[in-house]
Amino acid sequence: MPFARILIGVDGSHGGLSATRLGGEMAEGRDAEVLLVHAVPLPPIVPGVDQTISEESLNYLEERADTALADSEDVLAEMNVKPERVVRAGSPAEVILNVAEDRDADLIVVGHRGFGAMKRFILGSVSSKLAHHVRCALLLAPVEQE
What we know:
By secondary structure, the chain is α/β, with parallel strands linked by helices. It has one domain: Rossmann fold, CATH 3.40.50. It is built from five helices and five strands. The chain has a five-stranded parallel beta sheet with strand order 3-2-1-4-5, sandwiched between helices. The protein starts with a strand and ends with a strand.
C-alpha cells in the first residue's frame, strides 16, 4: 500500500530526527507528499492573568521551530525528498491529529522513546495519545536514549 501523504512530527529532538529519517525512507523514490509538522506550545490559561506573550518569547518559539524544521529538512534533502513545513500552535498530539485530518494523511511518523509503564502513566506521551485517536497508519520511530 503506497502512502501518498506522509506526516512527520518534529520537535528538534533525537526522536524527531529519527522520525524524519524513517518517514524519509518511506517517501524516498516515490511520489509521496511529505509534511513536516511542528507544534508551538501555548502557555497554560490562567483566569485573571494577562496572557500576553512577549516579543522575545515569540522570537524564541519561531527560532526553535525553524531550527527543528531545518534540521529535518537537511536529513530529507540527502534523500531527495522535498517536504512542506506546517507549524501550528497547540499541544503536539492535537496539532498532529488536526493536520493529519485536515490534509488527509495516509501515514503519521513520530519518534518513540519507549518510556516504562510508570513514566508513561505519569507523563503521557505524544505517541500514546496518537495511538488512541489516529485515523490513519501510525509508525513509531525508535529512539536511542539521549
